[in-house]
Structures are given as C-alpha cells and as structure tokens.
Amino acid sequence: MSFKDHFSSLAGDYARHRPRYPEALFAYLAEQAPSRLQAWDCATGNGQAATALAKYFSHVIATDASAEQIAGGEAHPKVQYNVSPAEHSGLEPLSVDICTVAQALHWFDRERFYDEVRRVVKNGGLLAVWTYSQSTITPQIDAVMREFYATMRPYFPPERQWVDEEYATLPFPFEELAAPSFFMEAAWNMADVLGYYRSWSGVKEYEKQHGESPIPQAESALGSVWTDPQKPLTVRWKLHLRLGRVE
Question: Quick one: which of 51, 105, 153, 212 is 20 to 30 A from 129 by CA?
C-alpha cells in the first residue's frame, strides 16, 4: 500500500527538532485505558510518544509506514518497532488497550484506519489522536513566526487544513470523551526554532519548487526581534486532543 510520505527525507530533523509531548498527557491516557497491557502508537515517527507510553504500558507496538523513521526510533526495551501503514498494522485482533496517533491522523486514509482501529483495539479501549497549534514565545517573535507560516502555508499538502482547524472538524466516529487541556513547553534558542522550521513538510516543498531554502530569510526576520539569539526562551504549544471509546 502506498502512503503520502512527507517526512522520510526529514527523519533526522524531525527527531532532533520536534517538541516533546507532556508527561501528563500519557499519565491521563493510561488512567482512561481499560488495562495497561499493550498500546499501539501509530505513525510513531521517531518514537517519542511510544517511549512515553512505555512508562505506563507493559508493551508498546510502534508502527510507521516510513522505514527511515522507524530506523531512527528511540530504543526502549518495552517498545517494538514495525514498518507498516496505519491502515494495515498487522496487529492481532482485539489486542491493544489504546491506539495513539500524534500529529499524523490528517495524513491517513481515515475510514480504512478507523476500521483497523475497530479490529485491533479491545472493546472499551481507546483511540487518542492529537495535533498542536502554532507555538507562542513573545508577542514580537510570535508575529514573525506567524508571517513565516503564512508564507509557507501554500507549500503544505492540503491535509494541513485539518491541523489549522485544530482537528475540530475532522471526522471522528467514536464515542467521544471530554478531555482536559494539555500544553507542550520547551526551552529553545533561535537556532532550535530554525531547526523546527526545517522539519516542516512545507519548507521541504518550498525548497523543491524554488531551488533554495527559505530559512535564511526566516533567520534574518527572527534575528530582528530575538534580543539574544543564543538565549533559550520558553516555547509553548497547545495540544488539541480527541479521545474516543472503541466499542
């Protein structure tokens, strides 16, 4: 099965420059799960959600359609990495307590994926999917970052619209549970932010179309408002979680 591969060529940047999800998120998901025997982290990327789940679940299966992403997965004794598409995991029927999808559901053939979730998640188990908003740092830096995103926005795939809409409009045919708000935070300097930019699929497409990187222009714009580029500042993202019970 083919898949929309926007990140294999960015696997290294993705692993180095994407923010970490909050510990409180995984503690909460574990509390809601019917048991803590096995979790499936789908479209795991470099495995950051999978290794976080491993603190709470006896075994975690982490799958991704990209062999390059799986090759760079974070090693953990309780995490098993497999190369497989979201829509055909290869997992045993009714074998997992929870399926998680971090910042990736918008890329899937959702109807086929949802069928796969119903096949492999235990009755009463969970599907947890999330995306996150644009970051905030300071009002001046935020304005520059919003302008850069607006410039890059036409180069993202159409599925990016689901992220812009914070997953609120994304079809989700499960009994939905109310969930608390979660935030990611990181202490980043300007070079870290530029590394984050490099992990965007829109930046990769811009480079492909124009034969040059937009990062130098972004660096110049950020440098005009970042008083000390070497000084880390607090970067914050709001998570948008949708949590469903699988019956």
Answer: 153
